[in-house]
Write a structure and sequence with these properties.
J_dom_sf; J domain-containing protein; mainly alpha; 25 helices; DnaJ_domain_CS; repeat
């Protein structure tokens, strides 16, 4: 049995068609049938073509516009669908189905005020109309959900601003943003059930994902927005920023460029576009200086590049490493240690930097730290022979650091020759000889004299000096020499007589 609504729709269609010649009526009727068949077979592009041809022949029938609007909606051409529904209610201000369809589409797109007006119009035309009443309530509920999502996004933005102002850790801010997003997620999903094409909600979701550093998901969400509307500027800029933090600078510039094409004065797009270019320019300049071994210039340019965006983790990892290498070459080992430490904060698994960090700690004569780090990294790379070798080296250097520094005692460089060592010994022996000091200073002078003699005993002997420089235990070395008929290490057992 045909419903009264369908009968009324057919009557409206026939009244409109009655104004055309019979040959035209036949053409329009045939085109509508073709359109309906195509629509039923999900061939929506074909349906649009047939409905459009019918409209060209008869443009005053509201129902034909609603048919084409339905096809456009299935093609995700929502703006074109909305234009058709506007035309339908313009042709017939009492067209209830036109108002209902347009109200649903407006709600689907988060145009809640417009949707409420359409459903209210239906209720004014037909008080108590059940569908209109249900859709009006659903629209108001969806509006409340969007307001809740907006409040969550505002809280996330405020928390991030406060964290940046107070100098808190970026990771802490991202974790808070992630928790905030999880709390609002059920409301967001419920909103999408009522308003699947709510661009505002999608942009808010992308902003919260961005605050949580979920950049891949930002790209996915904004991609869905741009598939529906490739001129959505907020989505273009947000997607470009996400690509920047994913270290895909070409894609970032492409999206900022698209936004500027549609709006050359868009402030955020212009700012972000210039930032990417500035970052790339300074990074390239720093890399060229590093390759040319112009260490001071490299250091300056790496610092300049890091200041462009301190939060660019994937990009700044390479900048910190370049700065580390530059400062290591300048023998500013403590600074280099700090720089390499920053690399490991950004990429904890970087093998090259782990090895470099331990070596830099030894160069900085921070031997206990070097040993701790070497053992830590060895535990992470048990099958890597280079980490085993480095751990042994760190142990050896730590042991060396705890013994007496004979070069320092004699006041000579490690590269000093035999004559320089002998001269230093004679000068110090005269200075600290107990016969040359007062009775009050005699005990201290004897101790100092013994150390000078001990240092000279080792450094003046080629074999002992080589063993010492190689970090070998001199007593063990002496016992080994004795076992094979070699020397005894008298340096450890001095006996002096002072007249």
């Amino acid at each position: 049995m045909i419903s009264r609504r369908r009968i009324l729709a057919r009557m409206i269609l026939l009244i409109g068609l009655a104004q055309k010649p019979w040959s035209c009526l036949a053409d329009v009727s045939q085109l509508l049938k073709l359109g309906d068949t195509a629509f039923a077979n999900s061939e929506f592009n074909a349906a649009v073509r047939h409905y459009s041809s019918a409209i060209d022949l008869q443009s005053t029938v509201p129902l034909m516009y609603t048919k084409r609007a339905a096809a456009y909606i299935n093609l995700r051409s929502l703006s074109q669908a909305l234009r058709d529904l506007n035309k339908a209610v313009e042709l017939d201000s009492k067209f209830i189905q036109g108002y209902l369809n347009r109200g649903k589409l407006q709600r689907q797109m988060c145009n809640f005020a417009a949707a409420e007006r359409d459903f209210t119009s239906v209720l004014e035309l037909k008080p108590g109309q059940k569908v209109a009443d249900q859709e009006l309530q659903r629209t108001r509920a969806a509006k409340a959900k969007l307001e809740a999502v907006q409040q969550a996004a505002d809280r996330a933005a405020a928390a991030k601003a406060q964290q940046e102002a107070q100098g808190g850790s970026e990771e802490h801010g991202e974790a808070a943003a992630a928790r905030n997003l999880e709390l609002i997620r059920p409301t967001l999903e419920s909103l999408y059930e009522d308003a699947a094409d709510c661009v505002k909600a999608q942009v808010l979701e992308a902003e919260m994902l961005f605050s949580a550093a979920e950049y891949e998901q930002v790209v996915a969400v904004t991609g869905r927005i741009l598939k529906t509307d490739d001129r959505q500027l907020d989505a273009l800029v947000l997607r470009g920023r996400a690509y920047f933090y994913l270290a895909d600078h070409d894609m970032a510039k492409r999206h900022f460029g698209e936004a500027l094409k549609f709006d050359p004065d868009h402030p955020s797009a212009r700012k972000e576009f210039n930032k990417v270019k500035d970052y790339d320019r300074k990074r390239a300049r720093a890399q060229r200086a590093l390759e040319a071994q112009d260490w001071l210039e490299a250091e300056k340019n790496f610092i300049d590049a890091l200041h462009v965006d301190p939060n660019h983790r994937r990009g700044n990892e390479g900048l910190w490493l370049g700065l580390c290498k530059s400062r290591a070459a300048l023998q500013r080992f403590d600074d280099a240690v700090s720089d390499c430490g920053n690399v490991l904060v950004l990429e904890p698994g970087n093998r090259e930097v782990k090895l470099l960090l331990v070596r830099l700690l030894m160069d900085a004569e921070r031997f206990e730290e070097a040993q701790v780090k070497a053992r830590e990294f060895l535990g992470q790379h048990q099958q890597d022979g280079e980490f085993h070798e480095l751990a042994r080296e760190a142990e050896r250097r730590l042991k060396m650091s705890k013994r007496k520094d004979y070069y320092k005692i004699l006041g000579v460089e490690k590269s000093a020759g035999d004559r320089e060592i002998k001269k230093a010994y004679r000068d110090l022996a005269k200075r600290y000889h107990p016969d040359k000091v007062s009775a009050e200073e005699r005990t201290a002078a004897e101790a100092q004299f013994r150390e000078v003699a001990e240092a000279y005993e080792v450094l003046s002997d080629e074999q002992k000096r080589t063993a010492y420089d190689n970090g070998q235990d001199l007593e063990e070395h002496a016992r080994a020499e004795q076992q094979w008929g070699g020397f005894h290490h008298p340096g450890m057992h001095f006996t002096f007589r002072f007249g």
